């Protein structure tokens, strides 16, 4: 995987908001209270690994089923 592919893999706050159909402010709040997995800070942006979010989604689904 080259550098461009690795960079494109990560999601911005806005992309995470679209994924969960919430406002970007909600994503920032979730990060602040520790509800959402931590992202990677790059400059002023916080980027999220979609693989980590997929794993988090699976854990949330397990918790709801229990």
Write the layout of secondary structure elements.
Elements: H1 3-9, H2 13-20, H3 24-33, E1 40-42, E2 45-47, H4 50-65
Helix pairs in contact: 2-3
Task: Characterize the structure shown.
Helix content is 62%, strand content 9%. The model has no long low-confidence stretch (mean pLDDT 90). β1 and β2 form a beta hairpin. It is mainly α. α2 (13-20) packs across α3 (24-33). It has a two-stranded antiparallel sheet with strand order 1-2.
- Helix proportion: 55-70%
| Anisotropy-based shape | globular
From the helix content, strand content and strand pairing, which structural class follows? mainly alpha
Mean pLDDT: 90
End-to-end separation = 38 Å
- Main sheet makeup: 2 strands, antiparallel
Give the SSE order as H and E letters. HHHEEH
| Strand arrangement across the biggest beta sheet | 1-2
The proportion of residues in beta strands is 5-15%
Which spans of ≥5 residues are poorly predicted at pLDDT below 50? none
Tally of helical runs: 4
Gyration radius, to the nearest Å? 13 Å
